[in-house]
Amino acid sequence: MKTIPTIVMGTGIQRIKRILTGFFYLFLSVQSAQASVAPAAFPSRSFPADTITDYYEVETIRMPKGLTAETDGLAIMPDGRIVAGFHRGEIMLYNPKTKTWKLFAEGIHDPLGILAISNSEILVMQRPELTRIKDTNGDGVADEYLTVTDDFGLSGNYHEFAFGPIKDKKGNLYIALNCASNGAGIFPEVRGKLDTLGRPGRMYSAVPYRGWIMKLTPDGKLHPYASGFRSPNSIGFDANGNMYAADNQGDWLGTSKLYHVEEGKHYGHPASLLWKDGFPHVTPSKLPVKMLDSIRTVESVAFPHSRIADSPTQPVLDNTGGKFGPFAGKMLVGEMNHPYLVRLMLETVDGQIQGACAPFLVGSGLHKGNNRLAFASDGSLWIGQTDHGWAGDRGIQHVRWKGKVPLDLADMKLTPTGFALTFTQPLSADQVKQLTNFQFKRYYYEYHEAYGSKQFDVQPVAVTNAVLSPDGRTVTLKLAELKAGYIYELELGNLRSTTQQHLMNHLVCYTLNRLIKDRKM
Amino acid sequence: MKNRLAVGIIVVLFGLNLPAFAQDTTLTVRAIEGLKYDVPRFVVRPGTRVNLTLDNYDDMAHNLVVTLPNSRLRVVNTSLTLGDQAVKLNYVPRTPDVVAHTVVVEPGKSDKISFLLTQEGIYAYVCTLPGHGFVMYGAIYVTKKPASVPTLDKDPNVAANRKDDAAGHAGHQPDHPYVLTYPAIYRTFMPDSGPASIAVGLTPRQAYCWDAGACRLRYAWTGGFIDQTDHWDGNGKKPTHVIGDVYFRDQGGFPIRFGTADRLPEVHFKGYKLINRYPEFRYTVNGIEVREMIKPLPTGRGLIRQFTLGSVAGPVYFRCKSGDGVKYRPSVGKMQDGMVRLPVGTRTFTITMTAE
Asked: What Pfam families does the entry give (chain B) (predicted)?
């Protein structure tokens, strides 16, 4: 905010400086030292200092007095009311028109996922069960709490969170079950079969299906769907019905990740393998890393730790048809430890989904702890925030697009020789010619049992050519080298649009699992 | 919790009973759950060399950065701008504000640092990992007058989440944005029960614990309801506490038997419906639907459990063996050897349990 007055003052002072002489020199030199910062940062004289707040507006929702607003779950009812679940078990309804709160249900154990069925009925994923909560007598307060499924183990370990549910087009529901943590033990009594072979390890799975994503078919049966998850908070679908799960950096996860989840596949955290049909009855984490590496499906997107995300949360599709700005049809992921969201740019390469991630809404006034995301029918985004003893914030924020299109990277696609970057606005050609405006490096994170990973084999990658498309929106970059199995981190320089807007975000990381196969081969 | 506070107090007391001249001080600071250091602050004389070990008891990585007086927030904010250098620098900016720092300490690991504090002032120690620095910090008082240090709850240099601990939990914040109405229900981690339990407060002074995994009443108590402060704190590691005296604790396992008295049936929890705020539990026993509603005795300690059964072919037994703290009185049927045999065709019955 301060940059605008500084520029105005600077040019003003410099004009005065030309008129005035020695008498004021001492005073002015102090002033101009301060003002001289502005021209360096904004070489274009007439360039407006646009910021993200010119394009997006963040409203912090006033929470009820006395509520500990650790927002576990959040969804939108058909009538537009926000239904939010909180750590102390309250499920509350917020009417955005009247800005009032009302209690709907009580006593839920960590309602980490909510799916609105109607204006009087919701599905809630709480620790012990997936529960159908309904107001049956029309007094606005729930009176029926029926079990949809509890057919999974519960050891009493605090880290056995449960996420979801999400519903596919066929009416199946999916839930995700967190592993337990060796930060605590288990209860003397557990629900489900206890297998002590599942106890070793940082994050463990001593009762059935911890570390799995489960599918609930309309007949009420819960089926193991995919394994290998550590802390899958949470799951979501893209526009084509592909399912994604975010998972958190830790043991076996060198950095946080987003998986494209498909039935029967295993995604790398070994604890869950104990419950895989036909798998050897051993402590899975004690198997050779090479073997474990060979049976896993790698992530679609790696979120470089501390650069992009430390603790990614719910993937959500921007299904607003453009009401939320220029990124419609793409996905967003929440992030706990940074005051922003993460934007995804996915594509299918060689039959597999991979792609890029970039920070979004940096500097917008968004808080940390962005745990749950839901788009309303007016195209605005509701965000539930929590900390839950970790880094984060509490409360609910509401983000609206103000109608103007910022300059930002809209898409990043792999080419046989580099990347094609498509922007939301046509770029000014001058900056595109300067190859130093495209700084690439590449690295990878190791798959191993230790917590997290450093970046391995960090190398700068030279851009040898940049070509701007006739419409000015796409820059095709040729790289000196493209290698599968690496994250390509791109730092964009001070690109400008022909509309004299400046780039909102400079960092983007592309997870290059597969190269484009030469069609002639 | 008590142990942690004890460590804090010992360190503070040690600081207050300073020797006449400065010397080396050795201490261990633990990073604990809930973005906290277990030691909220400590006091040393000017000229002290501090040998500090950061021991990470939490389930995420932390560091410990000692900063000059009045510079903690500056260091924290600068640490957020380190970009791709952050990991390499252990999230510590290279500024003169930093007196000393550990590396990033992974869960279960530790790191030792040693630093000399010569000038008087209120220094800070803070974790500079992203998001941590605004809540996870403590104070080092370097002073010749330890008596001038404010009490912990009034100390502006101590993290808010440590002052809460010092002041105790009760009475500061309301539990909810409303006053709890009884009967009240919480799904929570109850002690001495399965992990999928339900605490029901019938009145502010009468309560029971029902296990939704095993579909049965586990225990009942009078004198209060539950205290969830510890369970609600941080990541929820600790169970909820019972307030009051437990007068009934089930010893016999699942009470309903179909066909034969000695075979345990298969049960599934189907949820509950609220009737005047009382939960009526629904579950199936060998596929037969059962409803159970529990109300307090009008006077005295005890419960009235009303059961409704689906259609059953053959005899139904209800186990009510003595020795678990109550006397059983069934509304129908005959008691024999700790079992009530219900008349064939019984669809509803009550079991009255009175504390012995």
From this structure: Copper-bind
| Facing residue for B187 by CB, picked from A67, A101, A109 | A109
Amino acid at B280: E
Domain assignments of chain B as residue spans, ordered by start: 2-167, 184-355
| Residues B87, A202: C-beta atoms closer than 8 Å | no
Put simply, the answer to whether B233 touches A68 (Cβ < 8 Å) is no
Query: Which amino acid, one-letter code, is at A136?
Result: T
Please indicate, yes or no, if residue A482 is contained in any of the structural domains: yes
Identity at A498, one-letter amino acid code: T
Tens digits of residue pLDDT in B137-178 = 999 999 998 888 888 888 888 988 777 554 444 445 789 999
**A89 lies in some domain:** no
Domain of residue A464, residue span: 409-512
Mutate to test the interface with B, among A189, A394, A487, A492 (most CBs of B within 10 A): A189
pLDDT, residue B18, reads 47
| pLDDT at residue A520 greater than cutoff 90 | no
Kindly report the CATH number assigned to the domain that includes residue A461.
2.60.40.1220
- In Å, how far are A414, A464, A493, A520 from A417, measured between CA atoms? 8, 10, 21, 15
The string over A307-328, giving b where at least 16 C-beta atoms fall within 10 Å of a residue's C-beta and e elsewhere, is bbbbbbbbbbbbbbeebbbbbe
pLDDT per residue as tens digits for the range A436-481: 999 999 999 999 999 999 999 999 999 999 999 999 999 999 999 9
pLDDT band at B21 (very low <50, low <70, confident <90, very high): low
Cβ-based neighbours of B52, under 8 Å, separated by 6 or more: B26, B27, B28, B29, B64, B66, B112, B113, B114, B115, B125
The verdict on whether omega for the bond into residue A234 sits within 30 degrees of 0, i.e. cis, is yes
Domain boundary among A296, A317, A344: A296
CB contacts, 8 Å: A191 with chain B: 194-196, 213
Residues 6+ apart with CB under 8 A from B6: none
Tell the residue number behind the tokens 């970046």, with chain if given: A455
Find where tokens 């390509």 sit.
A488
Structure tokens at A502: 């400046």
Sheet holding B334-336, edge to edge: B256-258, B316-319, B339-342, B334-336
To the nearest whole Å, the CA of B35 is away from the closest chain A CA by: 6
Written as six digits, the tokens of A459 are 């190398």
Find the Cα–Cα–Cα–Cα dihedral B182, B186, B192, B196, rounded to 10°: 140
8 Å CB contact of B213 and A202: no
- Asked if residue A36 belongs to a domain, the reply is yes
Q: Which residue of B has its CA nearest to A369?
A: B131
pLDDT of B110 higher than 50: yes
Encoded tokens for B15? 């600081």
Mutate to test the interface with A, among B36, B84, B137 (most CBs of A within 10 A): B84
Range B2-167 classified under CATH 2.60.40.420: yes
Identify the band that residue B19 occupies on the pLDDT scale cut at 50, 70 and 90: very low
Token pair listed for B282: 């629904």
**Number of domains into which chain A is organized:** 3
**Rounded alpha-carbon distances, angstroms, from residue A196 to A189, A190, A204, A384, B90:** 13, 12, 10, 37, 37
Q: d(Cα A154, Cα B193) in Å, to the nearest integer? A: 12
Q: Helices B2-16 and B160-167 sit at what angle, rounded to 10 degrees? A: 100
- The interface pTM score, or ipTM, of the predicted complex is 0.89
Cα Rg for chain A, rounded, in angstroms?
A: 25
Establish if A129 belongs to a structural domain.
Answer: no
Cβ–Cβ pairs < 8 A, chains A and B: 166
Q: Is B167 helix (H, G, I), strand (E, B) or coil?
A: helix
Residue B217 confidence (pLDDT) above 60: yes
Class of residue B47 by CB neighbours under 10 A (exposed 0-12, middle 13-18, buried 19+): middle
